Amino acid sequence: MSISRQNLSVVIVSFKSDHVIHRCINSINKDIEIIVIDNSNNSQFKKNLEKKYENVKCILSSKNIGMGAGNNIGIKNINKDFALILNPDVVLEKNAIDEMINASKSLETFGVIAPISDKPKFPNYRIDKNKNYKFEYVDPFKVDSVDGYSMLLNLKRLKELNNFYFFDENIFLYLENDDFCKRLRSNNENIYVVPKSKIHHLGGEAVDPRYDFEIELSRNWHWMWSKFYFNRKHYGYLKALLSIFGNLFSAKIKFFYFLITFNSYKRKIYQMRLSGLLNSMIGKKSFYRPKLEN
User: Fold this and answer.
1) Which domains, from first to last, does the chain contain?
2) Model-level pTM?
């Protein structure tokens, strides 16, 4: 089944994203439905968005539930066969969606297709380096995974898979897309990148810069928590321990170094890394949330 604008919805999970989300929304065709899930539970933000854009519906989550859980709410609240997952700090280039629509017509089957980042040094996809992939950046090409900030899901096809779920809500931040893509591949679903469809990802700017330090602490905590959780889930506890051994050793050394050199900023960063790792290793849920004022 090929995609059409009438059979596609865009899902955007926001959190203190007022400063960037308008660029994202304005880069999307106005005849496409957009569902915004706001994790900051800001009723004024919802009111402003729905007043300004006729094609936008904003759903407030009761608390900060993370990217994966927010995406799942968006998916549950659309009745289309396809969903384009976007971060609020992504800007689509002209015809990006139309290029994905056109590409879908030539693909026999796909679980996910994605546009390509306009930054070649920072590709938004991964392929197995042990395989000799040869492709030109013209036609859609198959990959192992794509970054979660822009991915188009074939909802109708994926909902037909046995015991398949979308995003793992145990993961608050980081690697929810890798987990999703890995489970797709386990179900023999194809993941494609469309090189004619281009996007610009601002990167790390989805949250208001006023909260940079708290967000940096949160990122470091969750990156470590998610790395251990992901590896334990898919490869077992021992493999997970081996995967984070270097991170654990480095974080300990750097924490104590910055402690004795009175560098409180760096000390807190590595304290967060240690905390994220240790909590994941003992099986605690991903509980840390950035401490932000309203």
Assistant:
1) 5-201 (3.90.550.10), 209-281 (no CATH)
2) 0.92
